[in-house]
Amino acid sequence: MGRLGPEPGLTVPPEDAPSATPSATPTVSVRGRWGKLALRLLISGVVLSIALMLVDREQVLAGFRQLGVLDWVLALGAFLFLHAISALKWRFFVGLVGAHLPLTRALHCHAAGLFANLCLPSLIGGDVLRAGLALRSTDRRTALVVGSVVDRVADLAALLTVTTVGLMLAPWARERLGSQGSLIALAVVLLGGAVCGWLALQFAFRRARRLPRKLGRKIVEVTRAVTIMRRNPSRAVGGYLVAVGLQSGFVLVNVALGTRIGLELPLELWFLLWPLAKIAAMVPLGFGGLGVREAAFFTLVQPFGDGALAVTESLIWQTVLIAGGLACGAVWTFWSPADSSSAADRAS
Fold first, then answer.
1. CB–CB of 168/150 below 8 Å?
2. pLDDT tens digits in sequence order for the chain, 348 residues long
3. Which of 89, 96, 209, 326 has CA 20 to 30 A from 123's CA?
4. CA-CA distances (angstroms) from residue 17 to 20, 319, 325?
5. How many Å apart are CA 218 and CA 226, to the nearest integer?
6. Cα separation values, 247 from 85, 193, 250, 258, Å
7. φ and ψ at 232, to 5 degrees?
8. Helices in the chain by DSSP H: which ranges?
């Protein structure tokens, strides 16, 4: 009588209670992912359709026909080569803050990130997948995350640098483009974000002893990783210069494609307009930047040249991005580097 709790005959078997939740959760998750993908495809289709309505579609098709197959293959090869160097740059920054990553593993994870960029709403999604896969190969996980963030910041800073150089080399384009204020605003946002992040990190480090032990330890690890990088400023600057070279390389590949189809623009204008279109494509809308990049490049080129050829060149580059991402997806799927085991596993 004084015994509390359910009677034995009324006890529900453990497997019955949670049975509905696991079956429903994956279904909702899968439907949500497909729904987001469909929405991004719809946005890309609408934006691209609007861009094509503003130009001569026959001229766009003529531009595709004018490009030789060999030219496209060379552009794809250049894209893959530059991203191989980009994987080495990422590995360099990760190692700079104290996390060792095997070379083949870095290439393998970077290929996975490029493939993910085709479907995820922004470059950040590919970075997260790349870092998540790389966590299996090192026991310095906090340093790897910090190095990955530094690598992405270096790429954004390099892109802004290339854009600024293009603006300095083409001052005559300021009035017709009217983007000087936007560039200054972007620079202020990036600089302000970096300063705020650094101040927050310093504040958190000073308060680490008052925080829960696990959280405080993580903050201390992040601060140590940043301190290691600060002690090697010349190497950090060297990685940033490599990032500038890579962004310039991507611009030059597009210059070659544009020249082949008849899009004649001064070289300094390419270094101004194409990075701006790339920044616009980073907005988390559409499918891999499709449509957004074309509309942005058309708007930017229109005051200086043929808008239809600008859309054509951007679409050609989009095919290179898709082919390169699929090739990297094949590498990620069918190639398993021998040194993919984690450092922790090897130590044990």
1. no
2. 444 444 444 444 444 444 444 444 445 455 666 666 666 667 666 766 776 676 676 777 777 788 889 999 999 999 999 999 999 999 999 888 888 888 999 999 999 988 888 776 555 667 788 888 888 887 777 778 888 888 888 888 898 899 888 888 888 877 766 644 455 444 544 554 555 555 455 544 554 445 455 544 555 556 655 666 667 778 888 999 999 999 999 999 999 999 999 888 899 999 989 988 888 777 666 666 677 788 888 888 888 878 888 888 988 998 999 999 999 999 888 887 765 444 443 433
3. 96
4. 7, 50, 43
5. 13
6. 11, 22, 5, 17
7. -125, 60
8. 20-53, 57-66, 69-96, 103-116, 123-134, 141-169, 173-177, 180-206, 213-230, 233-261, 267-281, 292-301, 307-334, 343-347
